[in-house]
Recover the amino acids of this structure.
């Protein structure tokens, strides 16, 4: 695929559609094979603004707000990872997409795993970024974040997202803050509850779709050992590790991630 980055013109327009009892906010950039982008626990569709810029017109990238996130309107009731995976497929249906490449980061990577497990025929490929097959084991940093207030967590999380060099960049620092979406305590609690029982370790070898695992070697939220396990257990998986990178790969290294994605989905064209 030939690289054709989106220029520095107006930001893509946020659109809304109604599906599966939700009013979903999403941003669509480019044309070609569809790529669904699934954001992290603390983020919303804005997490992928820089990545979509670098992906440009080489694919049809679609970033959306999940339940209890951003501008999406959803019922104030509990939900599960299974529900969040179904939401991805309902979004595809509403957009007239039969099969898509699916990229998920962190919490979104958990959702992406469930999409691959529950709807394998709807995926052309799977891209797992900074994610884990289980939430049963937490790092000290994760435990510390859970105990913080929303304000404390936002500032502390930026240090876990990007390197000191990245934080010194005004563009990266601004995008890091923009990617941390405000939520009510009730919304945060529902999202945490949905992830509490995430466990796919015994199911990974049933994922047969071409898979790319991308991880930072200095990720202190989700250790790189989980990425190594994902790549080892998923049948057709390959691993890309970014040396010295932390948890926020799409925020700090969007051009590199776009290059990896472009090359990978080009080999798995729909």
């Amino acid at each position: 695929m030939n690289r054709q980055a989106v220029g520095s013109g107006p930001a893509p327009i946020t659109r809304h559609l109604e599906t599966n009892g939700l009013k979903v906010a999403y941003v669509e950039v480019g044309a070609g094979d569809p790529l669904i982008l699934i954001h992290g626990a603390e983020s919303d569709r804005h997490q992928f603004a820089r990545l979509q810029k670098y992906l440009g017109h080489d694919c049809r990238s679609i970033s959306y707000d999940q339940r209890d996130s951003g501008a999406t309107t959803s019922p104030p009731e509990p939900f599960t990872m299974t529900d969040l995976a179904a939401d991805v497929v309902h979004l595809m249906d509403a957009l007239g997409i039969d099969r898509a490449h699916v990229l998920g980061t962190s919490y979104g990577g958990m959702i992406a795993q469930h999409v691959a497990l529950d709807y394998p025929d709807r995926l052309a490929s799977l891209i797992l970024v900074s994610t884990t097959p289980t939430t049963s084991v937490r790092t000290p940093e994760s435990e510390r974040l859970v105990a913080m207030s929303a304000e404390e967590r936002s500032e502390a999380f930026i240090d876990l997202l990007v390197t000191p060099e990245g934080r010194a960049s005004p563009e990266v620092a601004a995008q890091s803050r923009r990617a941390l979406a405000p939520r009510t305590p009730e919304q945060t609690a529902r999202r945490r509850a949905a992830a509490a029982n995430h466990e796919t370790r015994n199911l990974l070898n049933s994922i047969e779709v071409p898979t790319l695992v991308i991880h930072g070697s200095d990720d202190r939220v989700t250790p790189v050992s989980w990425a190594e396990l994902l790549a080892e257990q998923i049948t057709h998986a390959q691993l890309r590790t970014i040396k010295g990178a932390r948890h926020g790969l799409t925020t700090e290294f969007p051009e590199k991630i776009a290059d990896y994605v472009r090359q990978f989905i080009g080999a798995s064209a729909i």
About this structure: Residues 89 and 119 are 8 Å apart (CA to CA). The radius of gyration is 17 Å. The chain has one domain: 14-266. The beta strands are 14-19, 22-29, 34-38, 60-64, 100-105, 123-129, 211-216, 237-242.
